[in-house]
């Protein structure tokens, strides 16, 4: 029996109930056409090849001509790794790369994680620094609009935090 | 720590208890962490790796935790001991055999906590729990993380979070995974449908031994892909929600099996036990497939004289390194298949004689 869509031998046979006509319909297709019509899955157990995926993600993007060559030459001042080397190997060289390659990494992270900014746990020291920065910003804002009572309260909070969270 | 002392134990993840343990074998959470002022492991010199390992060891051994962590130097372990730790899910294949230079692992006595040093990242913290317990696993690993952070400075970025060697892990550095036994979805050919749905929502499906490994014995690991932009509780919640659906599908499929073809299932389980108990040569793959049928039989109440923990014990003890430790000698492939069959025969006979 031949495939109903092309001339290859039909190896996939489907009985389908068609609601509109209230009839069973028989389909005979070759494997290629069955896949094309999503009748059989591509792979029984899908594995994500992370390396290939990453290669695809960090490969030349559609960002426009010139940008690929520009980012490839970016070099980390701390470890000497070039962005081009990272693209070839898929591994960064040191924590400093995240700042050195920031412009190139942000779109990459967007594609991998659909985000460019961390949300979640932070080390105690980083939490404290972020909290203090936030309080100082609010203090400056309160002073700017002459809300001195709020400012005094924020100043006390900052002092309290600076004193209590000193690293042990 | 003498690794042979672990041999008779099942390890946390194979206790066979815990919530939803009819389907969920175990829960695992890992965190990737790196120290400031050092290159990532792949770019670090031997000297730097030795320094990182020294600092990590000190922090791990002195960590303020309710239990003690023992530090093992991987280069001081025989290939057999390393494989033994891989089979017990305490270290990765990479740490055991691919990477070189100073590296190690710290373990607690219950084999629930392990911290790999100088893997792809300087530190890879891991917590294993039996059954479905994401919350408990998160509480455990969060505490280990805090205890280590008190003694070391992590590479952390205000915008990008915890910095990792591979940008696929940056942010939380967290990979949470649950190991599922899904024989009924496999038998009723619905498993692909489940996987396609999972991939649409950015969860990965893998075989027993992680990336690239085949799903033997109907065991699958489901884990989050995204590590940046979502908090840890949010990621855990997403897995929890999906899992409820998979649990429901698997249990429905099991109920349908019992209802529609109980006799045939009973036969399949009995034949599996028969083969396990009488073969004279058997591969680890065939053992896993047969044990999968037996495990399903136990949860469908088709057999009542075998506890689920026994299946777990047979499962771990028939893997290559465990078998060689049990037999007390190195064995090549053919010898292993014969030794495996011999072990299974004697174990099942032992169990049979207890019952009667």
Account of the 3D structure:
- Chain A is built from 8 helices and 2 strands; from the N terminus they run E-E-H-H-H-H-H-H-H-H.
- With 168 residues, chain A is mainly alpha-helical.
- Chain A has 3 domains: 1-45, no CATH class; 50-113, no CATH class; 124-165.
- In chain A, strand 1 (12-18) and strand 2 (23-29) form a beta hairpin.
- Chain A is elongated and about 85 Å long.
- Chain B folds into 2 domains: 1-11 and 28-171, Creatine Kinase, Chain A, domain 2 (2-Layer Sandwich), CATH 3.30.590; 258-355, Four Helix Bundle (Hemerythrin (Met), subunit A) (Up-down Bundle), CATH 1.20.120.
- In chain B, strands 2-3-4-5-1-8-10-9 form an 8-stranded antiparallel beta sheet, covered by helices on one side. A two-stranded antiparallel ribbon of chain B has the order 6-7.
- Chain B is α+β, with helices and mostly antiparallel strands and 356 residues long.
- In chain B, helix 2 (79-87) packs across helix 10, helix 7 (232-278) packs across helix 8 and helix 8 (284-299) runs antiparallel to helix 9.
- At the A-B interface, helix 6 and helix 7 of A face helix 4, strand 6, strand 7, helix 6 and strand 9 of B.
Provide the descriptors you would attach to this structure in a database record.
heterodimer, A: 168 residues, mainly alpha, 3 domains, two-stranded antiparallel sheet, 2 strands, B: 356 residues, alpha+beta, Creatine Kinase, Chain A, domain 2, Four Helix Bundle (Hemerythrin (Met), subunit A), 2 domains, eight-stranded antiparallel sheet, two-stranded antiparallel ribbon, globular
């Amino acid at each position: 029996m031949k495939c109903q869509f092309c001339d290859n031998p039909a190896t996939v046979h489907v009985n389908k109930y068609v609601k509109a006509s209230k009839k069973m319909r028989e389909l005979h297709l070759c494997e290629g056409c069955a896949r094309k019509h999503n009748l059989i899955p591509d792979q029984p157990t899908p594995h994500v090849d992370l390396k290939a995926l990453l290669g695809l993600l960090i490969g030349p993007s559609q960002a426009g001509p010139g940008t690929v060559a520009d980012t490839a030459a970016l070099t980390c001042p701390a470890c000497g790794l070039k962005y081009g080397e990272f693209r070839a190997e898929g591994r960064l060289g040191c924590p400093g790369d995240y700042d050195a390659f920031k412009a190139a990494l942000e779109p990459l992270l967007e594609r991998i994680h659909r985000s460019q900014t961390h949300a979640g746990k932070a080390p105690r020291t980083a939490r404290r620094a972020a909290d203090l920065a936030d309080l100082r910003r609010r203090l400056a804002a309160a002073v700017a609009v002459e809300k001195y009572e709020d400012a005094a309260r924020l100043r006390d909070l900052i002092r309290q935090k600076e004193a209590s969270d000193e690293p042990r | 720590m003498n690794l042979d002392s672990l041999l008779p134990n099942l390890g946390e993840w194979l206790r066979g208890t815990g919530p939803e343990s009819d389907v969920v074998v175990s829960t695992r959470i890992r965190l990737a962490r790196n120290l400031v002022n050092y290159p990532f492991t792949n770019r670090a010199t031997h000297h730097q790796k030795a320094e990182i390992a020294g600092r990590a060891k000190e922090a791990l051994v002195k960590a303020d935790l309710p239990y003690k962590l023992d530090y093992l130097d991987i280069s001081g372990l025989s290939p057999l001991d390393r494989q033994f730790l891989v089979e017990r899910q305490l270290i990765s294949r990479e740490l055991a055999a691919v990477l070189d230079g100073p590296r190690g692992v710290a373990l607690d006595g219950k084999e629930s906590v392990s911290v790999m040093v100088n893997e792809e990242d300087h530190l890879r913290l891991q917590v294993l729990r039996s059954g479905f317990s994401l919350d408990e696993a998160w509480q455990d690993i969060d505490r280990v993380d805090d205890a280590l952070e008190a003694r070391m400075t992590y590479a952390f970025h205000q915008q990008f979070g915890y910095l990792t060697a591979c940008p696929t892990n940056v942010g939380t550095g967290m990979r949470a995974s649950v190991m599922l036994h899904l024989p009924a979805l496999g038998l009723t050919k619905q498993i692909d449908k489940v996987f396609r749905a999972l991939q649409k929502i950015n969860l990965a499906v893998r075989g027993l031994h992680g990336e690239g490994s085949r799903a033997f014995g109907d065991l699958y690991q489901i884990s989050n892909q995204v590590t940046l932009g979502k908090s840890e509780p949010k990621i855990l919640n997403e897995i929890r929600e999906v899992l409820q659906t998979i649990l429901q599908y698997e249990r429905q499929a099991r109920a349908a099996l019992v209802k529609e073809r109980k006799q045939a299932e009973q036969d399949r389980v009995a034949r599996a036990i028969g083969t396990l108990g009488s073969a004279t040569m058997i591969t680890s793959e065939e053992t896993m497939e047969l044990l999968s049928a037996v495990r399903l039989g136990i949860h469908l109440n088709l057999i009542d004289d075998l506890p689920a923990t026994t299946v777990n014990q047979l499962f771990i003890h028939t893997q290559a390194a465990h078998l060689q430790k049990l037999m007390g000698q190195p064995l090549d492939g053919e010898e292993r298949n014969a030794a495996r069959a011999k072990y299974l025969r004697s174990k099942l006979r032992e169990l049979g004689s207890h019952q009667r």
